Amino acid sequence: MTRKTVDCRKYPSAMNCSLSISGEEEEVVRAAAEHAVSVHEHTDSPELREQIRASLDDEKATV
Q1: CA 22 → CA 15, 26, 52, 59, distances in Å?
Q2: Domain span at 28
Q3: Where are the alpha helices (DSSP H) in 1-63?
Q4: Which of 35, 37, 39, 59 lies 20 to 30 Å from 45 when distance is taken between CA atoms?
Q5: Is residue 63 part of a domain?
Q6: What are the contacts of 10-18 at 24+ separation with CB within 8 A?
């Protein structure tokens, strides 16, 4: 299974967040949603999680 990644640097914010999260898709969606709620003051919802899921990239292999 391809690991997925999401990177806050792709989405400018007032706090210039630099967090990057990678792992299996469901892990990343869950962790990114928790981060979005606790740091960026978003409301956790199915819509937020779908936006996160749509923004996932395949992690580049580092061998």
Answers
A1: 21, 10, 12, 7
A2: 4-58
A3: 25-38, 46-55
A4: 59
A5: no
A6: 10/55, 11/55, 13/40, 15/39, 15/40
pLDDT tens string 31-62: 999 999 999 999 999 999 999 999 999 998 77
Mean pLDDT of 1-27: 90
Helices 46-55 and 25-38, axial angle in degrees (round to 10): 120
Closest among 63, 22, 30, 35 to 49, alpha carbons compared: 30
**Which residue, 32, 33, 37, 40, is CA-closest to 16?**
40
Instruction: Indicate the number of domains in the chain.
Output: 1
